[in-house]
Every structure is written in structure tokens, then in C-alpha cells.
Write a structure and sequence with these properties.
By secondary structure, this protein is of the alpha+beta class. The chain has one domain. It has 4 helices and 4 strands. Helix 2 packs antiparallel against helix 3. The chain is globular.
Length: 132
């Protein structure tokens, strides 16, 4: 099974949109107060029962969450380590190598070759949140 990735967004001041947003995250209702309008927040977690990792980031106006299904715990840990390193401004080669090993894919997209869509979405999301 390959990891399946989707990204969800919601304006933090839109109650209906935030309700829909939180329902898509495993045990998402626990973040309701943390994602109040104007609050910055970030978190990541793994729901072992449904093999789903989530990577949550809110800037006070918009909440974003990358959700990865069909993910083993060691893969989630590798994505979280990579995400946290990128957010801290660290692009250590070892962290990227570990993520590639855990997922069995390459992160460096070469326009001449196709790259797995899940990795492209992870890279895009991490890049956006690291600079946001």
C-alpha cells in the first residue's frame, strides 16, 4: 500500500469550515480551542488504528493539515522529523535520507523523471508551512 496524501484548509474564523476541517483529522475535535481565530498553532500526530499521520499548522487566519493515510509509524516519524527540521531551517542531509528510506522514494524531483505524487504533496506542504 502506498501512502495517500491530501491537504485540507479552513479559515479559522469560519465555524462551519472549521467543523468540517476538524472532522477529517483523527480525533480532530481536540484541536478546536487551539485553532481559535487569531491563534497560531502547529502539531503532528499518528492514529495507529487507521494508519494515518497528520501534520497541522495554523497561522491565525488559515488552518492547514496534511493527512497521510496508509502510513506506518516509522514513516510518520520520518516525515515528522523532516517537517520539524525544515521548520527550524535545517535541511540536514541525514534527515532527508531517513525520510527517503522510510518511504522508499526519492524527494529530489527531476523534471525528466516522474516522482510519486504523495512525495510531491509532502514536499509542497512542508515548504509552504516552513516559510509561513
Amino acid at each position: 500500500m502506498k501512502p495517500m496524501v491530501h491537504t485540507i484548509f479552513a479559515k479559522q474564523d469560519d465555524l462551519k469550515a472549521m467543523g468540517d476541517f476538524l472532522r477529517q483529522i483523527p480525533d480532530g475535535q481536540q484541536f478546536r480551542l487551539d485553532l481559535a481565530p487569531g491563534r497560531e498553532y502547529q502539531n503532528e500526530g499518528y492514529a495507529r488504528g487507521c494508519m494515518t499521520g497528520y501534520y497541522l499548522y495554523a497561522d491565525g487566519a488559515v488552518a492547514r493539515c496534511l493527512i497521510v493515510n496508509n502510513l506506518f509509524a516509522h514513516q510518520h516519524e520520518a516525515i515528522a522529523a523532516y517537517y520539524n527540521a525544515r521548520r527550524a531551517g535545517n535541511s540536514a542531509r541525514g534527515v532527508k535520507d531517513e525520510l527517503e528510506r522510510a518511504l522508499g522514494l526519492k524527494l529530489n524531483p527531476d523534471p525528466a523523471h516522474e516522482i510519486d505524487q504523495a512525495i510531491q504533496r509532502i514536499e509542497k506542504y512542508i515548504g509552504e508551512c516552513a516559510s509561513g
